[in-house]
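Quick one: SRPBCC family protein from Pelagicoccus enzymogenes, structure tokens please.
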Amino acid sequence: MKIVAKRDLKASPQELWAIVAQPGNMPAWNPKCVRASETPTINAGETFTALYEMKGQQHEAVGDILRSETNREITFRYNLKDSAGTGTIIETLSFAPKTDSITRVSHSVDFSKSNLPFWVKLLIGLIGRFGRNVGAEPLQGVQDLLGTVNKS
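--- reply ---
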């Protein structure tokens, strides 16, 4: 019931943190996020709003930061306000340095706390484990953004 992606990126954990930890930056790296509000700090308990577009439909979400370990891990919880009654989704990004200039980024989206029917959660888990990505995904957005940042 989780979709997990891992990628080695040419950046330090500090550079990656600067891009992904602030919810207001999400539209720059997450292709499904149309807009997101900023939080005053990047601490657990901060709340924000976000608008996502998936399959041509927009979905409002109220989010909060569940966990924040500077330069190591950020976990967001979203409560989607949609007609499907999706409910709560947990997204985590974690950073593990491999060398001075390469960091392993793990990105997971957990649907186990959502209101989706069990069979949909199971299908998401199977696709996440055995399927392949279709379309743009967040880690590609982070990598693309790093390329833009590193060129300046």
